[in-house]
Amino acid sequence: MSAGTAGHVARSTVRPNSETIRGTPLRTFLPTDDGVTIDSVYEPRAAVYDASRSPSGDPVFVVAHGFTGDVDKPHVRRVAEAFAQYGAVVTFSFRGHGASGGRSTVGDREVLDLAAAVAWAREQGHARVVTVGFSMGGSVVLRHAALYGSQAHADGRRREGRTEAHTDAVVSVSAPARWYYRGTAPMRKLHWLVTRPEGRLVGRYGLNTRIERRGWDPVPLSPVESVPRIAPTPLLIVHGDRDGYFPVDHPRMLAEAAADHAELWLEPGMGHAEHAATDDLLARIGRWGNSQDS
To answer: How many CB atoms lie within 10 A of CB 231?
Structure first.
């Protein structure tokens, strides 16, 4: 899974034409714990930058995109621009997407990609990190918080030595509650894309998404199994009541598993993930993340 496919470069290489002066955007490839390189962008808060002021007072939003997205897609850039009104922003392309290396495991080893992005966000001087994931990314932020948070026992051991990769608040948008769901036409199409050789060809050449042909072994902790392990980290679950991929029983399962720990926003008229998130919803998520104390 860590083979250097498209986008493989040397460790911690800053992209050409990327600014490295404090307070300006940074673009680099981050190495994950399993050796995949992840195309990543850091952008400071959109307000006029004061060089005498430390960024530690601002949160940094680390955005985990949905399947077939990447850091340069317009819908991902729109999310980043919205959150930049409330803090700094890190966006990145999951493995197998865009210019990142490796192949997509559709929510399994992507937790390592997010961990690398969160650790890099802290290196920029921010004391508070808010992870925000959409669809596949929504499942990844839940698993990441369970694995790297204060109750990180999901795989039988704590992630000692990577404490810088923990998050301080979690927002999961349009995420599934359980794996292998095929109850809607879009999800049946997605399963064809992932499991069939001809589907993976469409993914590679039509969607710029390189998909791992081998299935999960072992099957990773599911989102609904992850949620109880996130407390006491603040958790917000957001879902549209017209989501064409995952009906509302998914967010309700997640909220029930979290007991009284999570907030659930069921958004009237909203469809699926980044494309369906209105400017108003993104602003409310930004304010929620900004209000969470470390």
So the answer is: 18
CA distance 27 to 242: 36
User: pLDDT tens digits for 277-289?
Assistant: 999 999 999 999 9
pLDDT at 200 over 70: yes
Mean pLDDT score, 27-55? 82
pTM for this structure?
A: 0.86
* Triad 45, 48, 52: Cα angle to 5°: 90
- Token reading at 159: 């992630």
3: DSSP letter? -
SS3 content of the chain, % helix, strand, coil (to 5): 35, 20, 50
Which amino acid, one-letter code, is at 267? E
The tokens for 199 are: 């589907």
CB 38 within 8 A of CB 117: yes
Q: What angle do CA 90, 11, 40 make, to 5 degrees?
A: 15
How many helices (DSSP H) and strands (DSSP E) are in the chain?
A: 9, 8
**d(C-alpha 263, C-alpha 33), whole Å:** 32
Give the side-chain half-sphere CA count within 13 A for 284. 12
Tokens representing 37 are 């390189």
- pLDDT for 168 equals 94
Q: In sequence order, which ranges of the chain are alpha helices (DSSP H)?
A: 74-83, 110-123, 136-148, 185-195, 197-206, 223-226, 249-258, 273-276, 279-291
Backbone angles phi, psi at 140, to 5 degrees: -70, -40
Cβ atoms of 177 and 144 closer than 8 Å: no
